[in-house]
UniProtKB/TrEMBL annotation, chain A:
Top-level taxon of origin: Bacteria
Region spans: Disordered: 416-442
Keywords: Kinase, Transferase
Alphabetized GO MF terms: kinase activity
Designated name of the protein: Predicted nucleotide-binding protein, sugar kinase/HSP70/actin superfamily
InterPro entries per the UniProt record, alphabetical: Dehydratase_Activator_Redct
Lineage, broadest ranks: Bacteria, Bacillati, Bacillota, Clostridia, Eubacteriales
From TrEMBL, chain B:
Alphabetic keyword roster: Iron, Iron-sulfur, Metal-binding
Source superkingdom: Bacteria
Domain ATPase BadF/BadG/BcrA/BcrD type: 6-256, 320-574
An example Gene Ontology molecular-function term: iron-sulfur cluster binding
SUPFAM superfamilies per the UniProt record, alphabetical: Actin-like ATPase domain
Protein source organism: Papillibacter cinnamivorans DSM 12816
Name of the molecule in the record: CoA-substrate-specific enzyme activase, putative
Cofactor(s) this protein cannot do without: [4Fe-4S] cluster
Alphabetized InterPro entries for the sequence: ATPase_BadF (IPR002731), ATPase_NBD (IPR043129), CoA_activase_DUF2229 (IPR018709), CoA_E_activase_dom (IPR008275), Dehydratase_Activator_Redct (IPR051805)
Database matches in Pfam families: BcrAD_BadFG, DUF2229
Family annotation (CDD domains): ASKHA_NBD_O66634-like_rpt1 (cd24034), ASKHA_NBD_O66634-like_rpt2 (cd24035)
Amino acid sequence: MAKLVYDETGRLLFTKEMKQEYTLLMPQMLPVHFSMMQRCMQLAGYKVDMLTTHHRGIVDEGLKYVHNDTCYPALLVIGQLIDAVKHGGYDMHKVGLLITQTGGGCRASNYIHLLRKALKKAGMDYIPVVSVNLSGLEKNPGFSLTLTLIRQMIFSMMYGDIIVQVANQCRPYEKEPGATDAMIERCMARLIDGFKEGKGLNYPGMVKNCDKIVRDFASIPLEGPSKPRVGIVGEIYIKFAPLGNNNLEDFLRSEGAEPVVPGLTDFIIFKIDNRDVDIDLYGGSFLKKIVVRIFKRYVEKCQRAMISSIRNNSSFRAPVPFSHLKELIHGYLGEGNKMGEGWLLTAEMLELIESGTGNIVCTQPFGCLPNHVVGKGMIRRLKDDFPHSNIVAIDYDPGATKINQENRIKLMLANARRSTAAEGPSAGKPGPDTGKPASAEA
Amino acid sequence: MTNLKIGIDIGSTTVKVVVLDGDGTLLFRSYERHFSKVREKTCEILRGIQEMLSGRQVRMLITGSAGLGVAKASSLPFVQEVYATAAAVREYIPDTDAVIELGGEDAKIIFFKGSLEERMNGSCAGGTGAFIDQMATLMNISVEELDALSLKHEKIYPIASRCGVFAKSDIQPILNQGGRKEDVAASIFQAVVDQTISGLTQGRELSGKVVFLGGPLHFLKGLRERFTETLHLDEEHAIFPENGDCFAAIGAALCAADYEPMPFETMFRKLEEAVDSTSMADTLPPLFKDRAEYDAFLKRHNANAPGMIDPDTYEGDAYLGIDAGSTTTKLTLITPEGGILYTYYSSNAGNPVSVVKGQLEKIHELCGDRIHIRGSAVTGYGEDLIKSAFRVDAGLVETIAHYRAARHFNPDVDFIIDIGGQDMKCFKIRNGAVDSIMLNEACSSGCGSFIETFARALGYSIADFAKLGLFAEHPVNLGSRCTVFMNSSVKQAQKEGASVEAISAGLSISIVKNAVYKVIRAASADDLGKHIVVQGGTFLNDAVLRSFEVELERNVTRPVIAGIMGAYGAALYAKDLGLTQTSLLTAEELKGFTHTAKPATCGLCTNHCSLTVNQFDNGRRFISGNRCQRPLGKAASTMPNLLRYKYEKLRSLTGIPGPRGKIGIPFGLNMYENLPFWHALFTKLGFEVVLSPESSRKLYIKGQHTIPSDTVCYPAKLMHGHVEALLDMGADTIFYPCMSYNFDEKSGDNNYNCPVVAYYPELIGANIPRLKQIRYLNPYFGLHRPRDFKLRAEKYFLREFQIPKGETRAAVDAAYEAYAAYKEDIRLEGEKIIRFARENGKRILVLAGRPYHIDPEINHGIDELITSFDLALISEDALSHLVSKESRKVLNQWTYQARMYSAARYVCTQPDMHLVQLVSFGCGIDAITGDEMRDILERCGKLYTQLKIDDINNLGAVRIRIRSLLAAIDAREKAATKPKEAANG
């Protein structure tokens, strides 16, 4: 059995022995992306389980060990990890917890600290917590992000994005239920197989893979008239994680809508871009600025490749490049608005409206600080400038009832259907069985 | 024969059914409460009009929050209710500009003018129809009576408009301190109005022709009056349509035109046969396995009983204890040995004075010449009022009363938890003294009385209702957020078919979870203690007691008199006083007892406190609602107050007319600290700095219609009022910069501002329409890198104002100097205060918060309250520079928060310093700092007290906390000097 080793600050380390004996548990945020990440880490020799549990006990554990006024994602992520340790059938002395660590002025950067506090409170402070970050914080002898692993994970994020982008456009229309999810699984397996041989981890490899992915999804047989599209934006965890948003995407689909979820790549570029902007606004090292720019350009180039892949190989709607989002935000928010999702959240709403998806669910944890400004705070302006935008802000927290949330989303959907009906067939896309009963089919 | 159209609106509390004929004529309408039997009630109504409908083709549509489930289960069509309402309004009142609809649990606004916009209240605004019901119950009157009373009001009290729970904690003290019911009734309605406006308009003007819909607005004249008055609407523009209570149902019927007709019988059968398919997934284990387990439980707890003495035969001395709680009044009369002669426990029915008077009469009669009351003491919310009214010998703070009583039953007690109607109080006992005290904050208050209100609504007594839960097989999980949320969870559970038994048990468990995880913040029993005594009326409920034991996995002591422990403790305290004769009003004096309460507004300073002046016979008087001693005829405290000093210093920074015109600065949030900087900069550049006026509730109301997020903190909300006020003052340029970063004081891992402070300028710009007509400057600046700032400022002022770079350079230098001088001055003043305190043997209290917490409208005069307790007051920034950087267990990346950690660490080293943390409601960051501050202080043996503040002014609760803190400090110091004596007595 692995010995418990602490560093000079008293932090429990994840040792090399542990790498052999322990299972690392990680929360799920984006089902496809994180599943890819999990497989990458398995390739690197870690035993990793991604948690996909979804039941009330998670919230209860969270309430028990995390300050109840802390934001809901922290409560869920920590509750899910502790619930898994306690009830997931693991040997409690042979698990470690993986959690991502970001910086930034939002309280969310405190997750790892809150997790440790919670473990201590639960009397489980013998469980090592491993930070996954790119800033070189908190090193562990038994866990290292090698260059290969970093590359795999970054490419996983981008592959995840393109898969999700096209899959979301198939799922509501698939002729054979489950075809889209099966395709996702095939694509992921193929990519990981490629990773094993070091393939698909550079620009040309990525272009090739993207083309293949898009063509694969384009081959899925679809049917039916087009459905009203509903955009989902918001605080990153609540926006993406089904556990956080009560399966919002499923709910929207069951209501006869097509969810449109802007991807993660923009968020990654956004976080890099922040450093660039910070130097402009407040000063800083010129060298750092150059490094940041090179990195940003590279990811932007990959993003453009994804976009061209979609455009060249299918009739799927393609996302817009990050640079376009940054143009859209001018006149709304400053580029320096960087905490949480910052200006990107508003830019995503602007882009959705611009691309004809004016129906938007803006999700946030109850009392989310940045979203007071960039989410709820901007809806007024958007409504003034785009009278047809139809945005509903939904709060998520341990006490909010699903029925309350769904009723508000239904109001947004009713308006979505009315405006589709008002525009009529001449507006291009046929409405979703407009004349007929709208929501009884659920 | 044309097809009939049926609209069925099933809301949270009522069912509305409407039948229209082909040309839209209303054939039938009904509005009835469904008591959670939604489908049955709907069927019953339809059955009643079967004659009209049978054999006909009908088009029908279901709407409403509870209608969704019914529609799903019966596969009948559904339309969202706001959508339906809009359809009805368009049809019948086409020139409407806006609609306000209040329902049982939802509030909605629809704007027609310009672009159509529909909004519903967010999750944290449960207070509407159900809120009014709850308030009426609280006042022990019917909703109709409440309405009638409100029309006779003379004044309006400010009552929290955020939600029902908050409002309740506001109303309670007003009632307890003798506020007129008429005024309280109108204030309740005003709170609903304010909530609707601030929560739903979110920047859109409510004007033109406004249509009011929904049950409460249909039936309550007082509520209508508050709305029309607040919105300045005349009769032509405030429309209360006939059938305004059924508009959503009418809308549904209109929308039904788009649906395929079907025979009424088919439709009716579908509805009747619909068995709700959703099952109760979210359940908890039962409280008791079987009867035997319950009996053993009862036996264990019933052993903790004091002796009962027959008052009809007893002769000798006695002591009286009164606990004038927030919702209940308790009295006990005891013998010197602690035997109980008489007890009383009842709701104070909104008028504790008359309850106590009746009881005293009874007690005097009971005593006759045999029993001599030697001493009396009173505790609880109504302590001061009752003390003045009946000349009670002494008053004591609740925590002390509870501890005194608990010690009587278990001398080794080391943890006490008291759950009353409104509050939860927990305290640890160490070395025979009350140690750390945890009180619930507004959000989790009212749990105890919630069960009672709920039981009554279902037609049960609280005792019967509690019994039902004991053997429930599958208690429902109702969450633990607050009573508003519990209420909607209950509704949902009912819709899903949960039994009353399961709900009763679920409620008990929720309350306990609330106490354990929110108030105590404990993960296990070991965090509490070995000898836990539970008390308070709520614990008389066996289901609650059991839940508590189950949750903690530990047996606890519940005295049989759990409900009157406060009064019992007060009686013991009265005995401890060692008096020979009580000053309590005699039977004779009671006969001439009179009491009148009049509202008044204090004019002694700009706070304009809402006072209630209670006048008793013989010239006894009691004034409540005051923040300071002045209205009581006493001089204001002369103790030094650094918060006041800072505030006055900042307010004195007035503009000097200059050649470059005026620049308006909203005085709030981080301007509370950065003002000396910007003031110097602009003054030097030749601008006249114009500050927005001092914060006040009026100022807040001025801006509240432009607040987009009702869960943001009060200091941020006030900014809207400040900017509106600047606009009213004719400002043509307003400067309010965005600042991700704060000054770097090198004491944390980074130097951020919180997201709200950092970016609120952008929110203001996007949500206050009038700013478009002036020049609103909200550039990004960082002051943490002076040289870089200078370069950027040069460019900025050249571009915006064509100011030569050299001038800007000089102004920036002056600005940094002014800021440094301000900081230095605060530190020197702090040192002066500390010196003064030490020379005069006074305790020093450090109020740790944010710079903007010195705003009297934000802190509600807590600073003055503290100095009135003979404490010298300083703030965290007077100390934070005195310790060096140390790493924390949380990410210490915000400048303001880092100061609090530093100040707390410094306080740890100073025996005569104590710290109280001030937290704004909705401050997500303080969810993190609160735990860490507690850690820092408790690790070195200091007490931690947190005061959570919002837009409400409930100093009563603050006073209890401060007094408890002081009592605990006293007891500790006493224990430290005479350890043995204190442990015994």
